Automatic annotation (TrEMBL):
Alphabetic keyword roster: Bacterial flagellum, Cell projection, Cilium, Flagellum
Ranges where the Flagellar basal-body/hook protein C-terminal domain occurs: 253-297
Protein family (similarity comment): Belongs to the flagella basal body rod proteins family.
Pfam family for this entry, one: Flg_bb_rod
Organism, scientific name: Ohessyouella blattaphilus
The keyword Aminoacyl-tRNA synthetase appears for this protein: no
Domain Flagellar basal body rod protein N-terminal residues, every copy: 5-35
Stated name of the protein: Flagellar hook-basal body complex protein
Annotated compartments: Bacterial flagellum basal body
């Protein structure tokens, strides 16, 4: 009889974990780039009361018997992330941008040596869906946490066009040099293909680089760390840095990606989770009453 007690306890624990997931979604309903998560239940272990047997058609044999099993409640099977693109939030800042698609920005600390764009899974860089960018005192493009933003440098040469998409580098704008002079940057523009141009106070237009977009085979293989960042897990598959395409999505300047939390869905899930939790508490109460009746049979 106490099997019901343990099954109900497992139900309480799992429903509490689901409520934790729901509460995190609701708490981040206004967080830039947040991706909603879903808690998925699965059956706990089973005890066979009767084992399954096959039929015996020989003389005197009997037919097959199906298994009879008693379950021990529920466990949290998985917590999945919905990477659908959120709505556009207009900010009016030219260095704010979002990816209208499945791609990710590539950010991280300064790295020595070349970083191949073909495979960045072991590069130590992180991914992000939030493009709150600015230029630091050294002219580097950084995110809100001070991580360098990686992309492609313009091809070298006077008549060269396009970008070197074979390797990733931190994007850097020219800064005035105390000895050699130089013009102060007056404004920045990020185009739909990720290319970044700046206009100096002398009205000179300079292309400083192109934002790289990470293409991830399995986004649910990413692990979210602090802030807006995702670490590249072993199950993420191939991760490469590429220029924007129709598959990864175009860059939208002056916008940030809003949370994709559906508040009405999470409120409904909260109600059903609360009722599931309440039903499991009733199982514990009824089991306790049955045990009390059993104890009181002999007075």
């Amino acid at each position: 009889m106490v099997k019901s007690m343990y099954a109900a306890i497992a139900g309480l624990r799992t429903h509490q974990s689901k409520m934790d997931v729901i509460s995190n979604n609701i708490a981040n309903v206004n967080t830039w780039g947040y991706k909603t998560r879903s808690a998925n239940f699965q059956d706990a272990m089973y005890q066979n009361m009767v084992n399954s047997t096959g039929g015996n058609v020989a003389n005197g044999g009997s037919g097959g018997v199906n298994a009879s099993q008693i379950g021990y409640g529920v466990n949290m099977g998985s917590i999945t992330t919905n990477f659908a693109t959120g709505s556009w939030g207009y900010t009016g800042r030219s260095l704010d941008c979002m990816i209208n698609g499945t791609g990710f920005f590539i950010v991280g600390p300064m790295k020595e040596g070349e970083i191949s764009a073909d495979d960045i899974s072991k590069s130590g860089l992180s991914l992000s869906k939030v493009g709150i960018f600015s230029v630091d005192n050294n002219g580097y493009l950084v995110d809100a946490s001070g991580n360098y933003v990686y992309g492609f440098a313009p091809n070298a040469g006077e008549d060269a066009e396009g970008f070197d998409t074979s390797k990733l580098v931190p994007i850097k704008a020219p800064v005035p040099d105390g000895e050699e002079g130089g013009s102060v940057i007056a404004s920045y523009t990020i185009k739909a293909d990720g290319s970044i141009t700046c206009v100096t106070e002398d009205s000179e237009t300079i292309t400083i680089g192109q934002l790289a977009v990470a293409s991830v085979t399995n986004p649910n293989g990413l692990s979210q760390s602090s802030g807006y960042l995702y670490d590249i897990g072993e199950n993420a598959g191939a991760v490469s840095g590429i220029a924007t395409t129709g598959a990864t999505g175009e860059i939208l300047s002056n916008y940030l990606e809003m949370s994709n939390v559906d508040l009405s869905t999470d409120m409904a899930n909260m109600i059903t989770t609360q009722r599931g939790y309440q039903a499991n508490t009733k199982i514990i109460t009824v089991t306790d009453e049955m045990l009390e009746q059993l104890v009181n049979m002999k007075r």
